[in-house]
Amino acid sequence: MKRRSVLAGLAALFVGACSKIAESGPGRSLLDAAEKWNLGLHDLLGRRTALAREFPKEDISPSFRGNGTTDPKEAAYKAYAAAGFADWRLSVTGLVNTSLSLSLDEIKALPQRTQVTRHDCVEGWSAIGEWTGPQLKAILDLAGLRPEARFIVFRCADSLAGGPYYESIDLIDAFHPQTIIAHALNGEPLPVKNGAPLRMRIERQLGYKHAKYLTGIEAVATLEGIGDGGGGYWEDRAGYQWYAGI
Ligand SMILES: Nc1nc2c(c(=O)[nH]1)N[C@H]1C(S)=C(S)[C@@H](COP(=O)(O)O)O[C@H]1N2
Ligand SMILES: [Mo]
């Protein structure tokens, strides 16, 4: 929201300045161009902040398949899983006023959102599931983002052949109301195959953005120096788009 008003303010300033220098001739077309740019910006922001479709419960898929890592092999993860994830913590670090280390109980004590949405994987399958968890916004508000923060990086407990899985999004998606940290699928604790005990839901983007086995959230000013700089495991390795809007 804050971002939207800053951008709209900038556009208004630009249009205002143009109307002073030109009432006719070439100035007039500059003003028209500025107005078009302003409208284009509003269109874009409208699309970015719109809600993903939510479905009635009857549409929930009978089984929600697992993809990518479905059973992390890391010893640390296996130890947490064996203890029912009782000691799992989610760290919140980077460009924040207060770093946090949250327990699952603390995460479940925040206001919760439940949403039935469709997951679309680039590999060509979809599934509908009901996800529950706090909005990422609630956690970012608790930690307090510093003004230099521009991206949120998600750290995961699992590695694939090329290294640790990770993902990242910009602040428009970070503050989107349907961007939640899910701990439940279809009313049950997340199964291991779907990212137990915590996974991201970023409903306006494709499946690979939804980091599973979430251990940390990091606020950064740039994606340079994170992984290979592409903003995610598959972005670094397979050239998947960083912004995977659907
Ligand atoms: N940590 C981690 N997150 C991940 C992956 C992964 O391999 N590791 N795979 C991604 C891909 S490609 C998809 S489609 C979804 C799959 O989610 P699911 O297992 O719940 O179907 O998780 C995404 N998040
Ligand atoms: Mo995927």
Walkthrough of the structure:
By secondary structure, the protein is of the alpha+beta class. The chain has a single domain (54-238), classed as Alpha-Beta Complex (Sulfite Oxidase, Chain A, domain 2). It has helices spanning 2-21, 25-49, 75-82, 104-109, 136-143, 171-174, 233-238, and strands spanning 89-94, 100-103, 113-121, 125-133, 151-160, 163-170, 179-182, 184-185, 188-189, 199-202, 214-220. Strands 2-1-11-5-6 form a 5-stranded mixed β-sheet. It has a 4-stranded antiparallel β-sheet with strand order 3-4-8-9, with no helix packed on it. A two-stranded antiparallel ribbon has the order 7-10. Strand 8 and strand 9 (188-189) form a beta hairpin. The two termini are 21 Å apart. Mean pLDDT is 91; it is low at 1-22. The site of molybdenum atom has 6 residues, from loops.
Rounded to the nearest angstrom, the radius of gyration is 20 Å
Cα distance spanning the termini? 21 Å
Judging by the overall fold, what is the CATH architecture? Alpha-Beta Complex
Largest sheet: 5 strands, mixed
Q: Based on CA inertia axes, which overall geometry fits?
A: globular
State mean pLDDT (0 to 100 scale): 91
CATH superfamily: Oxidoreductase, molybdopterin-binding domain
Number of strands: 11
The chain-level structural class is alpha+beta
Helical fraction: 25-40%
Write down the secondary-structure element order. HHHEEHEEHEEHEEEEEH
- Share of β-strand residues: 25-35%
CATH class: Alpha Beta
